[in-house]
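Weekly modeling sync, notes
Attendees: S.R. (lead), two postdocs, one rotation student

Agenda item 3: backlog of single-chain predictions. S.R. asked that every request posted to the team notebook include the full sequence so nobody has to chase files. The rotation student volunteered to paste the first one in as an example of the format we agreed on. Action items at the bottom.

Example entry:
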Amino acid sequence: MTPINKSNIVDSDVSLKSKKWTDGLIFVIVMWLLSRLVIIVAMQLIAPLLHTLLVKQGYPLPSVPVPSFVPKTSWELFSHWDGGWYGNIATLGYDYANDGQQHTVAFFPLFPLLCRGLMILGLPFEVAGVLVNNLALLGALLLLYRWAQERHGISAAKWATAVLAWCPFSLFGTVIYTEGLYLLITTAALRAFDKRQHAWAALWGAMATATRPPGVALVPTFLLVAWAERRSAIAYAAGLATGVGLLLFSVYCAIRFGEPLVVVHVHRAWPQPNGLNLFMDLLFLEPLSVIRVVMLFGGGYLLWHLRFKLPSVAVAYGFCSLALLLSVRSLNSFNRFAYGIVSLSLALGVLLACHPRWGYGTMVLFAMLLVSFSIRFAWWYWVG
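Predicted structure, as returned to the notebook:
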C-alpha cells in the first residue's frame, strides 16, 4: 500500500481554497463593474438624451429643486442632493447657526475627510467623491462575499454580493454619498466581531459612527451579542468603543459651535413626511412608499425567518438598525438607509441561494429599477 503524503493533501487543500477565493474575487469585481457601468451609462448618456427628447416632444416634466436644470454629461450629475453638502464640507469646512435652517454640520466627517485627502493630490471634489464611494463599495462587496462564504458557502456568497451590487439603491454607492464607505466599515466591524476580533470591531465601529448617524446601531448590537454569547469583558468594551466616532464629532461641535448636540438640532431642519402622507402615498401605490414598506417588513421578516442561520451579530444589527431608523423617523431616506444595512443583503442572499429561480427574476427587476433610479437622480428627482 502506498503511504499517504500528508504534505500533498495540505498543498492540495490550500490550492483549492486559493482557487475558490480567486474565482470569488473575479465574480465580485464583475458584479461591481457591470452594475457601476449600468449606472454610469444611465446617468451620463441615457438621462441627458431622454430629457432632451421629452422636452422636444412637449412632455410635462415635474419640477426639480434647481430651476431650469438641464442634465448634461458631466461629473456634476454625481453630486446632486447630499453630494453638494459634502462638497461644501470638503472645500469650506463646517458651518452652523442657530437659525432653524439647514447647515453642513448635519453631515458626519469621515467621508468628506477622505475626499479632502484625494483633493490634496489635485483631484476635483466630484472626482474624489466618486472614487472614494465606488472603491469603498467594491471593498464592501469583497468583505461581504468573504463573510458569506465563510458562514454559508459559495452560492450564498454570490447571491448576497449580487443583491448588494444590483439593488436599485446601490446607485448611492456610485454617486457622492456615504453608502459605499458605510457598507465597507460596518461589514468589516460585524465580520470582525463575529470572528471575535474585538479590537478590529471597535476600530471599524468607531469609524462607522464617524461616517453617519445610523452607525450607532453597532453599539447595542455588540453589547447584546456579547451578553447573549457570554463573551468576555473585552467584547463589551468593543461595543462601547464603537461610539467613539460620534463622541469625537460631538466634542468637535462643542468646541467649534458651543453645542455638542448640534447635529440633533440641525437635523430638524430637514422636513419629514407625516403618517398621513405616507398612508396616502401607499394607498395610491406610490413606488418609493411601496418599496419602503417592502424593505421594512420584508427585511424584518427575513431576519426573523433566518435568525438561526445567519450570524447572531448580523441579526442583531439588522433589527437594531431598523428600530433606530423608525425611532428617528428618517422616512424620506428610509430606503437608502435600509440598503445600508448589510444584514438585509446577507439574508436575501442566503434565501435566494435556496431559491435561485426567484433570484434571477429579482436581479432582472433590480437592474430595471437601477436604470430608472439612475436616470431620475441625474434629473434631480428624489429617489432615496
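Discussion: group reviewed the output briefly. The two ends are 67 Å apart (CA to CA).
Action items: rotation student to repeat for the remaining queue; S.R. to check formatting next week.
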